[in-house]
Amino acid sequence: MNNKRGKNTAASVRDRLLALSRERGEDFQLLLTQYGLERLLYRLSESSYQNCFVLKGAMLFLLWGDQPHRPTRDVDFLGFGDSDEAGLRAIFRELCDIPVEDDGLTLMADSVQVEVIRDQTEYGGLRVRLFGDLAGARVPIQADIGFGDAVTPKAKEIEYPTLLGNPAPHLKAYPRETVVAEKYQAVVHLGMANSRMKDFYDLWVIAREFDFDGLILSEAIRNTFSRRRTSLPEHTPSGLSPEFYEDAHKNNQWNAFIRKGMLLTAPPLLMEVCLLLETFLLPPTQALIQKMEFGAKWEPGGPWH
Question: Which of 245, 221, 230 is closest to 122 using CA atoms?
Fold first, then answer.
């Protein structure tokens, strides 16, 4: 158990989340999970491990704007320090018992499990699973932690927005440039084998909605590709090529992602996504290959100028 709480608080929080899900037309279980992730972040920010984890992944979209763009059921971190299963299990069990202001949520320390991530990226990491309880409602929580990546520019201290006005988490978070660089590296590395359609969607949203300084983005791309030992593509990578976006199987994967994604922004065809990303990502890449300074600016939707 992680704080002194009464049944009334937990029941009240659950009722408020249920009302919020109806108001927004969102899935109640998904909102419960998002609340659990948010309060896990708060416990982390109140612990001695605050500087051992940098927030990354889809939860950043809510930080950058007033909408998450796509719902997520997990939180992603870049971790520093313990990269073994036993050490990470001990940290998260401790987080479950951090004394905090009553938010109605009980995180179950004895439910913490840690496993090695084995996915397409080959960079792996560790996955933490645990459960919370909110007035009898089961709240599944998952945290994916990677290690050893470069962050350019350096991570910034942020205040994470809250669903119900609880005390806000304060922790470090990835800059947009590194989010772009890592997802781009996965596109290049995986090529035609890439089934991570969420990466294409996230990059499309980022390119449409945010501005970038070419000097900073190109540095982030260079540092990420170097750290992950990936060569910069001299031409359009296969993962953004006509071979990719005209492939029937890839279009089926894209359409399945769109159907299941509960997305707030309706994306276009996979071809349109890849063409925008080519316009966004190839110019800084070519400048790096040519060892030229890339001082262009990107306004939302592009192009570079």
Answer: 230
Cβ-contact 90, 191 below 8 angstroms: no
| 210-269: pLDDT as tens digits | 999 999 999 999 999 999 999 999 999 999 999 999 999 999 999 999 988 778 777 789
CATH number of the domain at 7-174, out of 3.30.1320.10, 2.30.30.60, 3.20.20.80, 3.10.450.620?
A: 3.10.450.620
C-alpha count within 13 angstroms, C-beta hemisphere, residue 140: 8
Question: What pTM value is reported for the model?
Answer: 0.93
Amino acid identity, residue 239? G
Of the candidates 209, 221, 151, 208, which has an alpha carbon nearest to the alpha carbon of residue 180? 221
pLDDT tens digits, 50-63: 999 999 999 999 99
* 3-class DSSP state of 99: coil
